[in-house]
Amino acid sequence: MKILQTKGWGDYELLDSGNGQRLEKFGPYLLIRPDPQAIWKPKLDQQTWENFDAKFQKTSGDKGKWIFKSKVPEKWLVKYKDLTFYCKLSPFKHTGVFPEQSIQWDFIREKIEESGKSLSVLNLFAYTGIASLAAASAGAKVTHVDASYPAIGWAKENQKASNLEDKPIRWILDDAVKFCQREIKRGVRYDGIIMDPPIYGHGPGGEKWDFNESFPKLVQICRQILTNEPVFVLVNAYAISASALMLENVLKDYLGNLGGSFESGELGLEEKTGERVLSTGIFSRWSK
């Protein structure tokens, strides 16, 4: 089991965490967002925390509101290496960017570039599309699937911001399971698959997604749309009460006969001081 930890990059840093919150820098703005795992004490003093530009305050369930101490635009650009994408403050505390995923973006690019051939990559539950852009920038033909029309619009904005409009990205508004089932019938195959499935969700037609029931079914279907010589399969998961071993065991059920190797573990953000790592999710990935 591995811990893949991101130390931050030019436009992103986890400055501190504690008391159920994290203090982060996204571009020029300091944000405070809740994090139920951060039950330890903050390292930085209260005055540093009070220098925030925007702070998310929960109201009910996962929803909440942003409290502002300075003017923060509706959206602003953030860069990671040669990718550029927009941050926005959503009513669910998210910014459209999961910084710990930068290590997975590098993995995706590395596998595509190492293959030495033109790959077809499927990105399911693709959200704002940074993984799609990483794959496209490395030379892959990408199919980007998400059930949210606004998320696809956001991803297209990111494609334009990254100057990747000439890259072959196919944008699909659909339920992940139904789309993959149709791809089987159409005879479409992929060399790589990325997915970030939620714990619960609904497709655009009201299709129900329940991780424990739906995830094994989806992996079984995905096995049928892989090419004869696939390159990688990557799964990230958030806010589920299970170990990365669960992800690996399911992947091994359906991908175990492909050879290659499996890696699984936690994703984490390293604080700027380097003293602590904040766990943000789990992952499992298979590759040749």
Task: Walk me through this protein's architecture.
26% of the residues lie in helices and 35% in strands. The protein has two domains: 8-88, Immunoglobulin-like (Sandwich); 99-287, Vaccinia Virus protein VP39 (Rossmann fold, 3-Layer(aba) Sandwich). Helix 2 packs parallel to helix 3 (130-137), helix 5 (176-186) packs parallel to helix 6 and helix 6 (211-224) runs parallel beside helix 7. The two termini are 18 Å apart. The mean pLDDT is 96. The strands form four sheets. Strands 1-16-17-15-12-9-10-11 form an eight-stranded mixed sheet, with helices on both faces. The chain has a five-stranded mixed sheet with strand order 2-3-4-5-6, with no helix packed on it. The protein is globular, with a radius of gyration of 19 Å. By secondary structure, the protein is an alpha/beta fold.
Average predicted confidence as pLDDT? 96
Tell me the CATH superfamily of the largest domain: Vaccinia Virus protein VP39
The domain count comes to 2
How does CATH name the architecture of the largest domain? Answer: 3-Layer(aba) Sandwich
